[in-house]
């Protein structure tokens, strides 16, 4: 959030702040605000010239604040020379997304498991745009090993959400029940990160794609780490609703995928 700086210089006794000779260069137009009642006040008409000595208030019991405003207005004929204090804005294209879409074993941000599909899709789209892929409602066995009579997978790059009418979290109506963040390839030896968009999403505890497995272990004490097999790289399991894959078992091996929600192949 950008802030416009305002520099205030207070002169408690005007006589002490008005030193110098009237023959000096003309001063920039300023705004004079009288905070305490003055014995005598003269209105100074707008002008680009420095005020004459006779037009100034000399009552030393009056507090006058001279303000230099960095913003240009129609009443100012020359730019102010005071340097404003500017607070850098938080990058609006990333930080709000990272904060709003925290990954957890309950869902993604405010989009919790059991959520109504269209509402969840609209919520995600408000942060990361329209989906890049959508299967529509199909028979589960056309695209997965999930139970139920219909299934739908909606994706935003490397983020994939699964909806169905039967899962461990709910049965009997369409709902959101799992997500996958990050896509990778594994050839039995090496693991390559393919898609990490939208970038920067993290769990509530701060784990994301690229986090070293040693940090994952310290973040989730008691997690289970499984070695690679012929089809998938090493993986870790925090609980039934949160797990992930890593590129190896070395301390610095990075996370390549995070999964939330029940396993689609699990019986209900």
Strand content: 25-35%
Helix amount: 10-25%
How would you write the strand order of the largest sheet? 7-8-9-10-16-15-14-13
* Oligomeric grouping of the chains: single chain
Distance between the termini: 48 Å
User: Main beta sheet, described?
Assistant: 8 strands, antiparallel
Radius of gyration: 32 Å
Order of helices and strands: EHEEHEEEHEHEEEEEHEEEE
- Which spans of ≥5 residues are poorly predicted at pLDDT below 50? 1-44, 50-94
Individual helix count:
5
How many β-strand runs? 16
Mean pLDDT: 75
| Apparent shape | globular
What is the SS-derived class?
alpha+beta
Polypeptide structure, described:
The chain is an alpha+beta fold and 268 residues long. Helices cover 12% and strands 29% of the residues. The strands form 4 sheets. It has an 8-stranded antiparallel beta sheet, with helices on one face. Strands 1-3-2 form a 3-stranded antiparallel beta sheet. A hairpin with a 2-residue loop joins strand 4 (103-104) and strand 5 (107-108). The longest helix is centred in the middle third of the chain and has 12 residues, at 117-128. It is globular. 24% of the residues are buried. Residues 1-44 and 50-94 have low confidence and may be disordered.
